[in-house]
Design brief:
Blueprint: H1 28-33, H2 48-61, H3 71-75, E1 81-85, H4 91-99, E2 104-108, H5 112-125, E3 130-133, H6 137-143, E4 150-156, H7 174-183, E5 184-194, H8 197-207, E6 213-215, H9 233-240, E7 246-252
Length: 253
């Protein structure tokens, strides 16, 4: 078994307020009163290009977390819908959307500069099959996504919260499995990728005994990275440094 890899971190960004409720404009007291979050708000700043992208392109590609999602109305077609939680800077999501124009892609990301970066890529690539939430993923799933509506759910390189006292913040838990089992269509897929072996083992511990999901590779087995998941620049760097990556694929049953 490979040695546990080091965490590959992405740049930090500062968040900006939006015209609808997000964690960005939640007071510190309100934040403390909310449920335990699986993410930490990063501090940083947006570039001028990112500011422009948010101003010019958010109205076209941004989604309101207070409204139920209607993919047919949003995309103008009836197609399989893939949802990704925490798309980072959006590079891999944009590449997947470009490679699979027949699919609808919904991305959720709380960090505004990453949202802005994806907007830039959407415009540069001329993508018509991507829409974005800048909001808490759990709230989006609960409030916006209809049951039995997703063909695939993607969770790539979530924060591993590797310190034991922080393990309770990990997003992969039975509660999320309950939610995704409702939201996925019959035989829908849940794809997880992590560069922390301990977190991969944690996912196995949570999902192997869960009665609503089946490991497509076999009990407690990982899959090879499928071509549908592009390599990010951080993952490529990790490979050069000898870091491992673990992919898991579960099917709704």
């Amino acid at each position: 078994m490979p040695l546990p890899p080091r965490r590959l971190t992405e740049p930090s960004f500062k968040m900006a307020k939006k015209d609808y409720p997000t964690l960005e404009n939640t007071s510190e007291e309100e934040f403390r009163q909310r449920k335990i979050k699986s993410f930490a708000l990063r501090v940083g700043r947006k570039s001028p290009a990112q500011e422009t992208a948010l101003e010019q392109h958010w109205p076209s590609y941004g989604l309101d977390p207070k409204q139920p999602l209607d993919p047919v109305a949003i995309f103008g077609r009836n197609a399989d819908t893939v949802l990704e939680i925490g798309f980072g800077n959006g590079a891999s999501l944009a590449e997947m959307a470009a490679n699979s124009p027949e699919l609808n892609f919904i991305g959720i990301e709380v960090h505004t500069p990453g949202v802005a970066q994806l907007l830039i890529q959407i415009e540069e690539r001329g993508l018509k099959n991507v829409r974005i939430y800048n909001h808490d993923a759990i709230e989006v799933l609960d409030d916006c996504i209809a049951d039995n509506s997703l063909s695939k759910m993607q969770l790539f390189f979530p924060d591993p919260w590797h310190k034991k006292r922080h393990n309770k913040r990990r997003i992969v838990k039975t509660e999320l499995a309950d939610t995704l089992h409702r939201k996925l269509q019959a035989n829908g897929l849940w794809h997880i990728a992590t560069d922390w072996e301990d977190y991969a083992n944690h996912c196995v511990e949570v999902l192997e005994p869960y009665p609503g999901f089946e490991n497509t590779a076999g009990k407690e087995l990982y899959i090879l990275r499928p071509d549908s998941r592009p390599l990010t620049k951080f993952e490529k760097r990790g490979h050069r440094l000898g870091h491992g990556v673990w992919d898991l694929m579960y099917k709704k049953i």
